[in-house]
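Check the record.
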Amino acid sequence: MITIRLKRGKSESLKRFHPWIFSGAIASMSEQPQEGEIVEVVDSEGHFAALGHYQIGSITVRVLSFERSRIDTDFWKRRLHEAWLMRKAIGVTGLSDNNIYRLVHGEGDRLPGLIIDVYGNTAVMQAHSVGMHRQRMQIAEALAEATEGEISNVYYKSETTLPFKAGLGQEDGFILGGETGNIATEYGLQFHIDWLKGQKTGFFVDQRENRRLLEHYAKGKKVLNMFCYTGGFSVYALRGGAELVHSVDSSAKAIDLTRANVSLNFTGDNRHEAFAEDAFKFLSRADDIYDLIVLDPPAFAKHKDALRNALKGYTRLNAIAFEKIKKGGILFTFSCSQAVNKDQFRLAVFTAAAQSGRHVRILHQLHQPADHPVNIYHPEGEYLKGLVLYVE
């Protein structure tokens, strides 16, 4: 096994179980590893520190184990079973009214570079590192045993998440099992899951609990769901008794999917309308009729270099919403940008509120659900931030 030696003092983060080793921490390599290869990491004195996947880039090693162990089929079974047991403990598996949940959340489950979402008996697996891509078949084959038979199909969806320069020629498709129905259930509501061409793994699993919270506030409200994608918030608002629901997304395909999901649950319900239009333009010209607005935009900052412009974007978007929302209205506003921390996001929303001159109270501070755990040693895993605000 190839050995990577760290510079003096650069192993301290590993002693705190942080799972990333950056390129600037590396002193030498016994030889050049292949991208995705498992390497052994030692400190400046040559003492064992970790095992992990090597990758070209600023994060050079993603740590799989801080102990000497074989990274083999048994390793994947153990780690996946640990992840499944946690989901079982928090009560998201084996439910009659919900079969959508995240099984593996990267560093949060000590499997950096790997995401697995479950829809019924199908797991959609996404690799964000070359190492996880190279071991995808071992992982897929371990899933059925690790989940005690709950998973029988694995769809691999990593065309857009793997490093482009790695030249892997990856194509999405089933790597275990085969074609299966693409309708799954979340808290009694049904959704078409577009794992073939949809964003992420086909559905935004991380907003499950926040959608249910919105349902609680929707009765009698005129609801505007911006950046609606599959219409999750819209469907919950309808079940919650909203007077009307308008869904907006710049993607015509997303609007088609939203309409399909509304129809799946509320056939012929004329309370819902959907619009394929730029969100900023729609909101700017919208009438002041909405007393519940959802702002759930895509990540404005995918890296720290885009942070300044992202914060300006969040401020601008929320300022328009504060201007448009009716007196006594409720605003659900989110950021899923990992580069934006919760204090920065709150400051952007605070700035927007101050610009509007409205009196605003925080009702809830929202985050990703329990099946998207944050490794206590890897705070970067806390990516979803949200506020529910009462606007006087």
The longest strand covers residues 360-367.
